Amino acid sequence: MRVSVRLVLGLAAAVAALALFLWLADFVEDKAAVPFDASVRGWVHAHSSPTLTSFMRQPASRMPT
Q1: Which H or E element spans position 23?
Q2: Where are the domains of the chain?
Q3: Nearest CA to 12 among 2, 23, 3?
């Protein structure tokens, strides 16, 4: 049976994505992400403006609930 290169690459990509997801889940579970989240939140709030807030709310208001 001949295995195509696309199949092998697809399988490798799926395994890599799973490994990345598992690493991220472990990172979040250990609460190691809290300092990173706080720094990103601080940066976002430091660069916020009423215009940007209005712009970001547009797509959110169109999403179904």
Answers
A1: helix 5-29
A2: 5-61
A3: 3
